[in-house]
């Protein structure tokens, strides 16, 4: 029983502290930190409406009370009782059997499951022996006096109890039914409460001003992923911005001092799994702040808003430079819940006879690196190693050698045999282990690290799929990654530079002199916040000097500065030093709730193709509706466009 | 001095209770109701940043403290002191004169006004006699030890002290400077705090769930004012919805029970003064609620979030039927701050000899109505009456007769002379006055009321322009208007009906039988909230029965039900009875702050032509950016479009 399981969990896990039978609701139990007083007031959940109580709150302390409840018929047994459900929980209702209550009985016996009814009656004890200790309301039941059918459920599109087994596309098509599930009720309520706690922290505790910025804006230079919105002026378009970046900086120039917004952002990336065309970020900007200040603010914010049923966060979060993250974890968003770090073992092989290793070490950037797979001999199969080697060869054009510290389990990989005992002993000494498998690869530093970073995550998934407990599901491992490069070589034209993040990021103070001599070496004042290997936020100290901003835009990035003349002019009008950050709310809530996808923490998400499967958006609109916008549809005629179109219309499932 | 006046007011009016010199900040002083505890914690305004204090908070209790301040140079006098400004207020800084402080002196004397500096020093008493009681920090000054120029203000686009006299379009072009003004700082901070108080009321006190709904949606049937957003699928478009109406109802079907959202909404109305293409509403929906429940919720919400420096709101708000509003005030949004109500004086003229009045009374819907202009003989001129008569003739094709109760001031209007003494005496008796001017008109009920409703507001403006105090500027007069008609005849085709509000509005329970016989007579369960003559909110109990919804959509409104099949299906899956409301946040804050325009309560508003004058949005974009959206610009070729285009490009000022 999907709903029953769900709502019992909802009640037990969130509405009631473990081991107690109080009626403390979700909002209170999630509200850690008790912002403004020692005792947070419990919300009134039945104010302004016809019910006197919620189904889920009733317990022995309500015995004898006359109550009116509104809810959905969860199920009915033998026409003697039914279980009524609302967002707060389940309660058992006794269907009266005496002749005088025939009309009430008729209503309660004939209404289909998932119909909406209102019942009034008395809270009574269940007969001795019939209590249900697994049900939060299991000590009581309702002796009904009156009942009213508020709405009959006529056409469920399928058996609701099977809903959980349906595909995600069916869940999205009938989202209004999926929202009744424990999972969605829990995720959306937790999200609401966490955001409320964040607002209290920012607004009430630290004087931030909640300011709404426009979403109908102008195209950002280089903003290739911005949706366009035609205006009534021929050829002129608004853009839906990817973030309020320019506005938040202009607010600092305007002296607002501390800004935040739970901001809707837009990004048109076509079809990408686990991305949404519109998403939400906690957007923050402060004047007169440095990197440490922003980091402390965010640590306090997360600590304050963290769900109370999880372990409290320990601050400050650890910090790591980009260079260290790359060389140790092979990525700029390390999952620090587990080890398997990348180690440099070049020295072990200085005198190796193995040709490919020799060749690499003879090059200037050449290194030999490895990760160590704990109990790899126990959990991995020969086939896994072959898959790994194939992946490395295909994706990175690099060879991966498995090294088995116990020779009796080397699965006969030929190269591995060439590693002499002396080297094996040295590896055993370095890695302090004998039971593991070492994956070794040789090549240029960055590429080698990236490869091993990917293999590290792949192997972790493999080990866990085989039953090893590697990552504690209750662990939330936050990490700051700092000292990113300010610029990166353009992929399509490596002689030119582009911003590693965005062109408003300030250079690291120690590296400013390099801007004019070796800009590719300049580190930035950008910082990323990583949680369990996912980037959940990023920000920077911004450039507040117009001259420097102009130099970077015009000379280094070769951008058209006219597009940003308003910002450059603003910086010259007394812009304070400022910096900020944005947290990806959807991703953060997804990680906290352990949801399978960000779609499970959004009320009405789009499919990965950007469709609303419930209403069928986007959709065709009459040509006359386009006239006032001076646009017309240009049907694709060339083969590329036709192919794209056919892809978009292919009958593959959406999720 | 624009800024000085502004910030002194900011400090005095909002940061400090009248007559006191405490340092209570805006957030606290606005936070009425003290949501969660008896004592709201004062925000820390200098956490995480380099300053130790804000400029505006310093007072005698800080004497002797070493402080670091960051702010803008407001002005400087004789190179001996300067006034430093931040968002919190102004403070006087003494420029050191001794030789050892030459570098500090150089920085503080040479930096242009509006440059950003950081100073450290000691809070000292001003010399006796030099205190400034008008300045909240007027008892102290800062003896500077170190100073740093954080950013020089190089190119102010104009003398900042003249800024206040500039046109609104200049203010919008340099919005980042305008935001430094008292007016904008005050309005945006008040807005932020009021919304925070609303959230506390909804979320913490009444268990509402804050849920974000999509803005990339499907076109609503009849949604002619929706912006379209091309997708990457040829010919398919998203729409930016005018409100989350469908989503909020689907959330109720999904069992969320109590939803709210501070929702961004979009409406493309072309150029309309005091409207914005994107605007914000406090969007609310509840299950199992009736009209009274929603009204009580909103009354509590406004009471709770009302600025503390204003008189507390008295609830419940008065309520009036649409019919009464029309017949008494000639509008569905009466300004109830003053009288001048419309009165029916048909009976006085039953035996009149005046031909035009006789004719009207002989018709079935014919009435004679009047408004009474207090002290009209004193405040109005003959020319005013002539303007009024001309307006009535041109706009309503109706004649307005001025009646002077004192014959010696009848300004020789011929018809007025025809009113015999007996009638005048009866009018004096009815209206309990002699000094006033009566504006009398005769005709069909609705039209006559509408005309007099307009004249009532025109005359009120006139009287106030001439010096009469008619409407108390401190008065906030809320009013519920209820019992609207459910349908109205279509303007272009009066034989057909359209929804008076939207097609999901439930009919009045007493009128349901009329749906099938005389739908034009059905009243709805819609309610409007009116403040001082402006509609600031509207909502309704919704239809939760699929059959009824289908009948109204298909049979009465002749809409294509396929567009709403998802909603109809949802109603059949156990939709609870539900209702809600939306408050227009921009308008509400505008009325509370007394701002001249909603643009003054929005950080980055569009001009009335929908332009962002700072960044120049909307703008042309490269044709290749449109390719992936399969659209192309159709240049207007017919004369109508060309004319429209030229209008859009006319050199008229924007505001």
Automatic annotation (TrEMBL), chains A, B:
Keyword Protein biosynthesis: yes
GO molecular function: ligase activity
Aminoacyl-transfer RNA synthetases class-II family profile domain boundaries: 188-605
Entries under InterPro entries matching the protein: Aa-tRNA-synt_II (IPR004364), aa-tRNA-synth_II (IPR006195), aa-tRNA-synth_II/BPL/LPL (IPR045864), Asp-tRNA-ligase_1 (IPR004524), Asp-tRNA-ligase_1_N (IPR047089), Asp/Asn-tRNA-synth_IIb (IPR002312), AspRS_core (IPR047090), GAD-like_sf (IPR004115)
Name of one Pfam family that matches: tRNA-synt_2
Superkingdom to which the source organism belongs: Eukaryota
PANTHER family found in the cross-reference section: ASPARTATE--TRNA LIGASE, MITOCHONDRIAL, ASPARTYL/LYSYL-TRNA SYNTHETASE
HAMAP family for the chain: Asp_tRNA_synth_type1 (MF_00044)
Family: Belongs to the class-II aminoacyl-tRNA synthetase family. Type 1 subfamily.
Descriptive protein name: Aspartate--tRNA ligase, mitochondrial
Provenance organism: Echinops telfairi
């Amino acid at each position: 029983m999907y709903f029953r399981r769900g709502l019992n969990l909802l009640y037990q896990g969130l509405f009631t502290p473990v081991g107690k039978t109080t009626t403390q609701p979700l909002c209170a139990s999630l509200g850690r930190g008790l912002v403004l007083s020692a005792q947070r007031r419990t919300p009134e959940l039945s104010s302004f409406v016809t019910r006197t109580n919620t189904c889920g709150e009733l317990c022995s302390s309500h015995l004898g009370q006359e109550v009116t409840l509104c809810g959905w018929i969860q199920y009915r047994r033998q026409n003697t009782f039914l279980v009524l459900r609302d967002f707060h929980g389940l309660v058992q209702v006794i269907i009266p059997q005496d002749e005088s209550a025939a009309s009430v009985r008729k209503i309660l016996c004939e209404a289909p499951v998932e119909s909406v009814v209102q019942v009034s009656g008395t809270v009574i004890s269940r007969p001795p022996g019939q209590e249900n200790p697994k049900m939060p309301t299991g000590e009581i039941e309702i002796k009904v006096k009156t009942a009213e059918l508020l709405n009959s459920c006529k056409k469920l599109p399928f058996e609701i109890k099977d809903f959980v087994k349906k595909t995600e596309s069916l869940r999205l098509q009938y989202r209004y039914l999926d929202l009744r599930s424990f999972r969605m009720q829990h995720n959306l309520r937790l999200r609401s409460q966490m955001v409320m706690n964040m607002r209290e922290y920012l607004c009430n505790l630290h004087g931030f001003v909640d300011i709404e910025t426009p979403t109908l804006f102008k195209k950002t230079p280089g903003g290739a992923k911005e949706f366009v919105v035609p205006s009534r002026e021929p050829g002129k378009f608004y853009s839906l911005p990817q973030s309020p970046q320019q506005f938040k900086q202009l607010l600092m120039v305007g002296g607002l001092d501390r800004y935040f917004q739970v901001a809707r952002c837009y990004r048109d990336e076509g079809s990408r799994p686990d991305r949404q065309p519109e998403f939400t970020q906690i957007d923050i900007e402060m004047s007169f702040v440095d990197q440490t200040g922003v980091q402390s603010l965010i640590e306090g914010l997360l600590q304050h808003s963290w769900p109370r049923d999880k372990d409290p966060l320990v601050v400050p979060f650890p910090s790591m430079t980009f260079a260290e993250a790359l060389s140790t974890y092979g990525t700029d968003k390390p999952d620090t819940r587990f080890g398997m770090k990348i180690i440099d073992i070049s020295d072990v092989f200085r005198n190796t006879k193995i040709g490919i290793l020799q060749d690499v070490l003879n090059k200037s950037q050449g290194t030999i690196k490895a990760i160590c797979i704990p109990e790899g001999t126990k959990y991995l199969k020969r086939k896994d190693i072959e898959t790994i080697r194939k992946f490395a060869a295909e994706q990175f054009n690099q060879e991966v050698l498995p090294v088995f510290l116990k020779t009796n389990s080397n699965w006969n990989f030929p190269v591995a045999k060439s590693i002499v005992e002396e080297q094996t002993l040295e590896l055993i000494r370095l890695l302090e282990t004998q039971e593991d498998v070492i994956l070794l690869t040789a090549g240029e530093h960055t590429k080698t690290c990236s490869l091993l970073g990917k293999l590290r995550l792949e192997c972790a998934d493999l080990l866990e799929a085989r039953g090893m407990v590697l990552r504690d599901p209750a662990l939330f491992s936050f990490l700051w990654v700092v000292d990113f490069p300010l610029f990166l070589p353009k992929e399509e034209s490596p002689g030119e530079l582009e911003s590693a993040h965005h062109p408003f990021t300030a250079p690291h103070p120690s590296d400013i002199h390099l801007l004019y001599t070796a800009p590719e070496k300049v580190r930035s004042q950008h910082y990323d916040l990583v949680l369990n290997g996912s980037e959940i936020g990023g920000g920077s100290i911004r450039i507040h000097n117009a001259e420097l901003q102009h130099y970077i835009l015009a000379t280094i990035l070769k951008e058209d500065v006219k597009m940003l003349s308003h910002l450059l002019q603003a910086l010259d009008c007394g812009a304070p030093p400022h910096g900020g950050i944005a947290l990806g709310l959807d991703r953060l809530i997804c990680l906290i709730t352990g949801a399978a996808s960000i779609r499970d923490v959004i009320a009405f998400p789009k499919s990965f193709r950007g469709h609303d499967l419930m209403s069928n958006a986007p959709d065709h609109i009459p040509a006359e509706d386009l006239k006032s916008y001076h646009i017309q549809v240009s049907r694709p005629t060339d083969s590329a466009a036709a192919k794209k179109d056919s892809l978009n219309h292919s009958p593959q499932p959406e999720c």
